[in-house]
Amino acid sequence: MTPRQGKSAIKRKCLDCGEEFDAPDRGRFTPKFCVKCSEKRQREDEEKEARKEAEETAKRHRERADQARIPPLWREVTFDSSDSTINKVAFKQCLQYAENFNLRESSSLFLFSHKYGTGKTHLAACIANYVLHVKNGRVRYQKARDLLLDIRHTYSRESREDETAILNSVLGFDLLVLDDVGVDSPSEWRASTYWTVFDRRMEQRLPVVVTANFSLHEPERGESLGDRIGFGAVSRLRQMCGQNTIEFKGPDLR
Q: Would you identify the CATH topology of the domain 70-247?
């Protein structure tokens, strides 16, 4: 053992406070700061690292919020800020779905009514915000019509995206919220597109929350959702949702 490796101490002047202190002689590794200043530096480093981690977490959250595309009207709605006495049963079921949402595997949810303005979109937005902010999940909120328009736009010469890229993008989120499914007139192309969206989400075990003004089941009279988006797409949606369907009743709340 050389003298420098022993337990001898030497006098050093702290580079921070300037006070003299006894430092273990470790050659070029001899401490340059007194114990008090060393501990202070360690605390400052830990606080700096914590702030950096918090900033990175906040940045990732802002990025997820931007990617969610929740419209400004619905960006701040939450279960806590909503009136739970309106559509009590639907409110409770939607809250339970959000609280039980599992980022690894969750079932889908179908919200429907035969009227407009019964609160489906409001509670779907509450679910989206809960999964985004409380569960820290990756969410995409989109009007079904806008998704179809985005895909149609890829057919134009000016588009830089192709249909496959947009369809693949629906797999990049833990939860896809599709609002107003079936609002457009039925067509073979729409039926095929809806089938593809639901089929891809189903195969990857990625849930969707769907709102619609048509039932998943055949009514005694009138149209069903299958008449609007194709029975193949509805079959996929039924398989994904199981018993998780909520009917909204009551007057127009708008």
A: Rossmann fold (3.40.50)
